Amino acid sequence: xxxxxxxxxxxxxxxxxxxxxxxxxxxRVVYPTNYVPSDIHYWNLExxxxxxxxxxxxxxxxxxxxxxxxxNPNLNPPIMRIDDYDKWSYREKxxxxxxxxxxxxxxxxxxxxxxxxxxxEIKANKAKEFISDGDKVKVVLTMKNRELSRxxxxxxxxxxxxxMVEDVATPESMPRDEGSKAIVILxxxx
Length: 190
Fold this sequence. Notes:
Layout: E1 26-32, E2 47-53, H1 54-64, E3 67-72, E4 79-83, H2 85-101, E5 106-112, H3 117-132, E6 136-142, H4 146-149, H5 151-154, H6 156-164, E7 169-171, E8 176-178, E9 181-188
Parallel strand pairs: 1-4, 5-6
Antiparallel strand pairs: 1-2, 3-4, 6-9, 7-9, 8-9
Helix pairs in contact: 3-6
């Protein structure tokens, strides 16, 4: 029972538990109402919450042969949980990891108006790779000096780039001008 491995490199915060909790104050306790030690079907547990004295909560945790640990010590009354700490922290770390995997990123690809055909193809293939991974791609075309006075002619390589990736991506909107740059964001085709 308890926190067997305290890894300081772990990004998951380590709450105080069991004997680290001291004092005689009121706490809100979340605990299982139908806990059976031999039951392996953890997902069937029903939890309830109740305000009680910390010492009573520790006695309840001992009677259930479970750990008591802080969930949020900053509230009034602080929130404690009675549960198997190792199983709970494993589930929380797993949720945290799954949440990070589902985030889409915005990748950026830089183009210039005088880019070669082969270089444009390489960047288009890289954009396809990003988009197939579920990310969005921001394509930035940088124009300099005379290229700024001929914006539409300078944007030809940007339009060519969009045509190269049209089998997997679609632009969110038409390319927009921001100073000396033309920008378009590509997203996965549905």
